[in-house]
Amino acid sequence: MSNSPVASMTLSQIIERKLSFLLKNDISPWDGDNSDLGERDALQEMLNDSISLNEVEFEEKYLAEVARLIKRMEAKEYSEKDNDDYYESFNNTIVSILSLINPINLYDLEGE
Q: Does residue 90 lie in a domain region?
């Protein structure tokens, strides 16, 4: 926690906190199952990109990723080795962060 105004928080800090909580909390300890892995992987990737991409690039990249995952799920392009929980968690994590940036992203998931 910080005594700084909330307005000074960055997206990177928010993602870092979500990632830290996922990996280190006592309420629901990290067990590394596929849904946790999906969330962790999405947060790590988005954290890296939040440092290097501008807002438009970040949104475009992740809206495209969500659209790709939606099409994949709708087409049932799964193999025996795929784990739906992983992809669903990965997707949901991206959507949660995108909706923090701009709430319309919750409804415009196919980049239309």
A: yes
Helices (H), 1-112: 11-24, 34-52, 55-74, 84-101
Q: Identify which has the larger pLDDT, 40 or 2.
A: 40
Give the total number of structural domains in the chain: 1
Domain range holding 67?
A: 10-106
Higher per-residue confidence, 7 vs 44: 44
Global model pTM greater than 0.90: no
Give the Cα separation of 86 and 82 in Å (integer). Answer: 8
Q: Which residues contact 60 (CB under 8 A, 6 or more apart)?
A: 111
Alpha carbon 51 to chain centroid distance? 15
